[in-house]
Each structure stands twice: as C-alpha cells, then as structure tokens.
Amino acid sequence: MTGTPSNVERLLTLAEVEAQARAAHAGQTDKAGRPYAEHLQAVAEGVRARGGDDEQIAAAWLHDAVEDDALPERWLDEAALSRRTKDIVLAVTKRTGEAPEAYARRILGTPGARLVKEADLAHNADPARLAVLDAPTRIRLTDKYANMRALLGL
User: Fold this and answer.
1) Alpha-carbon torsion 45, 48, 54, 59, what sign?
2) What's the whole-model pTM score?
3) What is the mean pLDDT of residues 118-142?
C-alpha cells in the first residue's frame, strides 16, 4: 500500500487488515445467517477482480467495520493505513438517517470508493444470497441495491 502516515513506520499489510477485520466481525452473521467474514472476503475478492489496488482491497475488508460498530472510528483514525484507504472506508460508511442520494454523492466524490461499493453491492445482490431470505426482505433489498446502483451509475 502507498503513502506512509507520518506517525507510523509502516502500513498494515493486507493480511493484517484481513485479520483485523475478521477479528472485529467475529461472531457476526449476515442476514442469511452466514459468518459475516464471508461477505468481507467476497467484497475484497470482488475489488481485486475488478482491478482494484491494495488500498481499495484493504478498504473492502474494512468497509462495514465502522458502520456496524465492529471497530470504532477512532481505531480507523489511528490505524496504520493510507489516508486513501481511510477515506474510502469513511465514504462507504452509511450514516444514520442519511439519504441515499447524499450517500452516493460522498462515494462518487471519494477516489476509489465507487469500486469498493460496486463489489459490495454485487455480493449483496447475489441471487444465491437473496434466495435464502423471506420474500419481503428479498424484494426490499433488491430494490434498495438497484436504486444505489443507479445512483452510482453502475
């Protein structure tokens, strides 16, 4: 990863970021009851497959950490991560009561964030994942993900 923060000698490796994300989300499950780390791994792999760089892959591992209260924002502020990785994580972190349009504008205004959100949406909208949900939840989420894809121009 590029751009060493001034207060640390080196940045966390991708393996260290992955381990931190897995530990932070340990015991959490997704809406289908699967270990949450499976989603994080799928998003990281999706970013890599879409040509994302190490900073984006690190952000993919951490993309839900602050939003889900798995890690405090202070941890992110102090972590040995590039400023770009931190900015991407913060860009894709939804805020309570935030309109989808404002959320999409922040993502679009942050270099590298759109690709991370694209990989997140792709995994969230995977028909196999949605198929195990009850019909009302599946319909609500399908509409939500389609709306965000449209707002992001995907």
Assistant:
1) negative
2) 0.91
3) 94
